[in-house]
Each structure stands twice: as C-alpha cells, then as structure tokens.
Specification:
- The protein is an alpha/beta fold.
- The strands form 4 sheets. Strands 3, 4, 5, 8, 9, 16 and 17 form a 7-stranded mixed sheet that branches. It has a 6-stranded parallel sheet with strand order 12-11-10-13-14-15. Strands 1-2 form a two-stranded antiparallel sheet.
- Helix 8 links the parallel strand 14 and strand 15.
- GO terms for molecular function: oxidoreductase activity.
- This is Alcohol dehydrogenase.
Length: 349
C-alpha cells in the first residue's frame, strides 16, 4: 500500500478557543513503532474530552504550564486531538502480526500502552499523544479493536469515547435487569449511550433532558423522561431508583442522593452542570450508598462494547456530520447541545 509522507490534519497550537486549531496539509505521517499499528482514519467523533483538553478544563489552577491534559500532565504542542476514531490498519510496527493490515478498527481511547511500553498512568488518545483528527494515526495494537459490523465508518466512529465511558459506568455500578436507572444528560453522547446499554441489560431507564428532546429519548428506549429543570423528589419520590448515572452534577446533585434507594449506587463521569456540589454526608452513610468515580476504563469494558456492537444490541446515533476542515463549526454545533447523539467528522476521502 502506498502511504504518503505527509497528511492533512488539525493541529492544536495551544490552550484556548477554536482559534488555536490550525488545518494543515503538511503534517508528517507517523511511523508505527514497536507494538504499534498505523491507521488510515476515515471518521472521528466530536466529544467533550477533546474540547475540555483544548480549553485547559482539566487543570485545577490557572497555571497550565505543567498541567492540562486528561491525566493532569503537561501538554506538548502542536497536538493532534481526536479520541473517537474509526479507520483501517495500513501498516504495523515491530512485534505486530502483519495479518492485521486491512482490519477495520475502532480505537480504545483510554490507553495503557504507548510505543511498546506500559504506561505508569493511563493516557487518553488525543490528549497525552496525537489522536485521530488527521488522515493517519498510530496507536498500540492492543488498543486497535477489529470490529465486524454492517455499520458505516461514520457510525462506528460515534462509539469509542461515549459508549466505552457509559459501559464502564454501568459495569462499575453493576446495573442489571432488576434495576431502575436514572440518567442525567441523557440526550448527549454518553447519556444516550448509557440509555441503550442499560436497556440492553433489561433495566428500567429514566432519562433527564430538555423537553424538546423527550420524544427522541422515548424512541431510544427510555421508559420515562424528566425535564432537566424538574424537582426530582417531587417527580420520582425519595428512595425510588437503584442507580444514578450522572454526567452533569451541578445544583441538582443533592436530589440524586435523595431519590436513590438505600444501598443504591451512584456513578459519575462528567460535570457539565458544574463540578462543585453540596454533599450531606449523613445521606451517604445513613443510606449505605456506593459512589463510583469513573474515568479509567476497566480491562473488559472495550471488549464488552465490541460485543454489543457486533451483536446488534446498540445502534449508532449520528446527529450530524462535518468535514474535518470544518472542525470549528462542528465543535460549535456540539456545544449548543441541541442534538441527540454524536457529531462526527468525515476524515477520509
């Protein structure tokens, strides 16, 4: 296969707004190192993680010189972001079987290995290393998962980040068919994934969203939908749900603990409503609640996600597509939060 020397892609030049993103036609094509594969990218999803990294949201102080990546370290610029990737393996590095060339894959974004070495602290694809907002990208072979599906590359690119995050939360909180699950931010990428994955387990699902998206969530599988401005205690009653899957936090947060049944489970992997919340510790211990902070993917999470895809238990929700060079418009549309599902960039020809 003829692999070019340079490629098109989006380079992040520094922390800040979308003006820090530059489209280039002359980025060197990476070469796979030991244990790696080279992937020709066909589609890449838009997500909160890439935007949060760009604006320095993960830093806990204003000094971004030695923090700001997903794992809290220093960012090297220019950086190619892009955590959600679907593409084809076109070359392999040393110690990788050559028969992997030609596989259609999606990339597991939570990385445990890079350049043949196990990482001391997990990385996120497109944060601590270059990602998929380019025509080619490299990743450890173990994180490039072959997928056999009739779905398009654009559809498959909607899965890696959001659906693995949701699957991780459901596994950690042990959601099963007997559970009633309350999901905040249910119309977003992770939220809509959690709806599908909870229904695939046979659980009863209550989604929280804006009223304009009620019908879409009911069609997706929610048994009930509640407005994001509603009083959850009045709507649901105390001790009414088994599990809360939270992607929002914010001022509504104390109500989540009130509606959880004694022995209930709370899993969180987002704070778009605000990261600082008020906790009455008595509610936590008197109700024997379990809290799960979910960031690093468990070892079996991505394998489980691939099985869900290949067995047709979940479907892709692509709200809109953009060309790679229109990334600023795509991210602006994403931040309006008027859509259900995922926004995807078409990268390949």
């Amino acid at each position: 296969m003829n692999i070019p020397k340079v490629m098109k892609g989006i380079e992040l030049l520094g922390y800040g707004d979308s003006a820090q993103q530059r489209h280039s036609n002359a980025i060197p094509v990476p070469k796979p190192e030991r244990g790696e594969v080279l992937i020709r990218v066909s589609a890449a999803g838009v997500n909160n993680t890439d935007i949060n990294t760009r604006i320095g949201w993960y830093a806990k102080t204003d000094d971004l010189s030695n923090q700001g990546t997903w794992s809290g370290g220093a960012m090297d610029f220019p950086r190619i972001q892009g955590a959600d990737v679907c593409g084809e393996i076109v070359a392999v590095g040393p110690q990788v079987e050559s028969n992997r060339v030609g596989e259609r894959v999606i990339i597991e974004p939570c990385l445990q290995e890079s350049k043949g070495e196990r990482l001391k602290t997990p990385w996120y694809f497109g944060s601590e290393c270059n990602g998929g907002f380019s025509e080619y990208t490299c990743v450890a072979a173990r994180h490039a998962w072959k997928v056999e599906s009739s779905m398009s590359d654009v559809e498959l690119a909607s899965f890696p980040c959001s659906y693995s995050t949701a699957e991780n939360m459901l596994i950690r909180s042990q959601v099963c068919s007997k559970d009633t699950v309350l999901i905040s931010g249910a119309s977003g990428g992770v939220g809509s994934a959690a709806v599908q994955l909870a229904k695939a387990r046979g659980a009863s699902v209550i989604g929280i969203t804006s009223p304009s998206k009620n019908q879409q969530l009911l069609e997706l599988g929610c048994d009930h939908v509640i407005s994001r401005d509603a009083d959850l205690i009045k709507q649901l009653g105390v001790n009414s749900v088994d599990v809360v899957i939270d992607l929002v936090a914010g001022k509504q947060w104390p109500q989540f603990l009130e509606v959880l049944r004694p022995g209930g489970r709370y899993a969180v992997s987002g704070a778009i409503g605000g990261p600082l919340v008020e906790l009455d510790v008595r509610t936590l211990y008197l109700k024997d609640l379990s809290f799960f902070g979910c960031t690093v993917l468990g070892s079996g999470v991505f394998k489980s996600l691939i099985e869900h895809i290949e067995q047709g238990r979940i479907t892709a929700l692509v709200a809109k597509t953009f060309a790679l060079h229109d990334i600023n418009a795509a991210q602006a549309y994403f931040l309006e939060k008027q859509h259900v599902g995922k926004i995807v960039l078409e990268v390949g020809e």
